[in-house]
Amino acid sequence: MNTITVKGVKENFEISRIAFGTGSALKELSKEEFFQLFDTFFAKGGTVLDTAPGYNRGKSEKYIGEWMAERGNRDKVIISTKACHTFEGEPSRLTLKDMLEDLELSLSQLQTDYIDLFWIHNDDVTKPVSEIIDAVNEVIKTGKVRAVGCSNWSIERIEAANNYAKEAGLYGFFANQIQWSLARVETDDYKKAFNALVMDDESYDWYVKNDVAVFAFSSVAQGFFSIAAKDGLEALPELTRQFFETPNNIKRLENVKAYMAKHHVPASVPVIGYITNNKLPGVALTSATNVDILNETMAAADVHLTEEEVDQLFNVD
């Protein structure tokens, strides 16, 4: 499995560059099905389970905790969970009180005494970054988190937050969670539907320059490449076509199909490999509702693409 180094609070540590997401896609699954997916993911070399205290009304964290307890493998699992989430129109929850409440809820549901990757979700641009970073560092003082990142923060706010942290001798954000995939989002439809930030050229260049990692959600573009490569664009769900079916992405689909034919691999290999072999340090957040889909995803676990191959997949000129 390809790995990436996380800049931790006390020490750096290695994690897999594919993370298994436990969000709403799994809401209909039983505990036994969750366990089967976790077992498969770890058997294939994965180490990161991405979750949140509210995912599936707490079921996701609860099942992760029960699975770790049953398998006795907490020291081998990288728990990635979030705090401060709000829905559109709700007031922000970026206070120390909110962070600590969410942290303690996650610790309880997960049956653990520490979180490996703790994400501050949803920025509030009316709040000074100093106030937020000060609160984050109070959380760090509890000794219950190994690294702190942010989710859906703009590069301008991350830069301001990390600059403040550096000047004050505090810890900043090691990474950001945003939408990033080989299929570039070129309209506002995805942003509006998910209240999410997406990768663009300016952001990409900033992340590379500042060595800030990106945890890429919707890293396979809702199956755009795998479905279209197998059954054609007309087989794609309507919303996937709305979000991702653009002339440039159709050209990238041809790049993917050329790589598949040359190397005799499923679409997941070049699509996820684009993230996990990128010069921008990235982790591909993926999910699966059954073992067959997960096995196809994990076919990309050990793929090594050259910089030239990564560029060939993305370039459309």
TrEMBL record:
Q: Which InterPro entries match?
A: AKR (IPR020471), AKR_Detox_Biosynth (IPR050523), NAD(P)_OxRdtase_dom_sf (IPR036812), NADP_OxRdtase_dom (IPR023210)
What's one GO MF term for it?
A: oxidoreductase activity
Give any Pfam family that matches. Answer: Aldo_ket_red
Where would you find the membrane-spanning parts of this chain?
none
Cellular component GO terms, alphabetically? cytosol
Q: Which UniProt keywords apply?
A: Oxidoreductase
Q: Which residues form the NADP-dependent oxidoreductase domain?
A: 18-313
Determine the domain of life of the protein's source: Bacteria
What name goes with this protein?
Answer: Aldo/keto oxidoreductase
Source species: Streptococcus gallolyticus (strain UCN34)
